[in-house]
Each structure stands twice: as structure tokens, then as C-alpha cells.
Amino acid sequence: MDGVIVLISGRGSNLKAIYNTNLKNIIKCVISNRDDAPGLQFAKDNNLNTEVIVSSKFNSREEFEKQLALIIDKYNPKLIVLAGFMRILSATFIHKYAGKIINIHPSLLPAFPGAHAAQLAINAKVKVSGATVHFVTEEVDAGSIIAQGIVQVNSTDSVNELADRILEVEHIIYPFVIKKILLNKISINKEQAVIEKEPEDEKNLGKHFYSIFY
Ligand code: GRF
Q: Taking the model in full, what pTM does it have?
């Protein structure tokens, strides 16, 4: 299986989930744009390759991304996984890695893009929300949807309660999608991502099997 680069800026719980879901060997490098990201410490503690490119030290996005691309190209990954990476990437960068960058967002896109997705879901009084894994394109939180996992939204939920419930789903569907891509089990048909179903998927996804395949 080819490897991935994981880009983080903070906590790194999705990085941990990827690491803990039998995928630690496929992480070629963890790149953080902050030197104080807790996820970076996790990566170091677990002997993953790490690189830090402090974005705030660069004069322009272009210079930051040039450095980022240099490091990425050194590892020649099959996939670039954004896991709580809090920088918007330029069109030039995204085109350079077209079809190779994925992101996870804590809502059922196209509902509630941008920051504060859980807050927006509560404000809208929706009954269900969830997480979306999608390819990254120029438009923020757009791009072909690969998989979505659903959670219930309770009328009494605080933002943190809902965000935590969504995070649990993220930790199941993100490693799942990454593995499928690395195994070439995801194809794009008229901009729609199609996942090839395998016998072990139901066991691995639990109740989220149904939101992904039915
Ligand atoms: C997650 O909620 C993810 O959906 C969003 O950023 C958050 C990252 O969390 N893109 P973590 O750093 O992986 O814990």
C-alpha cells in the first residue's frame, strides 16, 4: 500500500484515529503548520516522521506552500490527508495535487460549510448531522463527497456534545476512506465518488455502514 501525508494544525484526534486503525505504516509524514500542535507531539511520541512549517513565519501563502510542496514531494505520497489543517490552500497548490487531497468536515455537506459547523447545526435545529469526507477543490468544503456518517442531534445538545458525537463518526469514516483510496477501491463517475463494497466493510463501519452504502 502506498503512503499518505497527514497535514495538521491542532489536536490531531483524526491523526490518532488513522494511526490506531491499522494504518500507522502508511503515514509517511505528519506535517504541522504550528509548532505547538498537540497532534505533532503525538506523532513524535509514536516515532512518525514529522515536519513543522510554521505558516505565520512566511511572508506570503505562496512561499509557505512552496515549502510545503517541497516536503510533500520528498515523500511522494499517494494521498494528502487534511486532518484539522487550518490553512486555506491556494488554487495553484490544489491543482498541483489534483485528486490527491482529501478533507473531513464536521457536517453533512453541503450544509454548514466553514467554521462552527456544530453551532450552525444546533442553530438550524436540524435532527441529524454528521461528518463528510470529500476531495479538496478550490472552493472551501466543496469537492466531490466520498463518504458521510450520520449522528442524531438532540434538542438538549450543547455545541461540544454534538461536536464530540460527530468526532466519533469522523474517527471511523476517515480511516475507512483512506484505506479504500490506497487500495484503489474508490472511483469517480461524473464527479461522484463510488466506493467499492467489500465483505469486511459492515464490521469495520458498524452502524455507519448504512449511511455510506445505503
Ligand atoms: C475535525 O472536527 C475535522 O472535522 C475538522 O477539524 C477538526 C480536526 O480535529 N476539519 P482533530 O485535530 O483531528 O482532532
A: 0.96
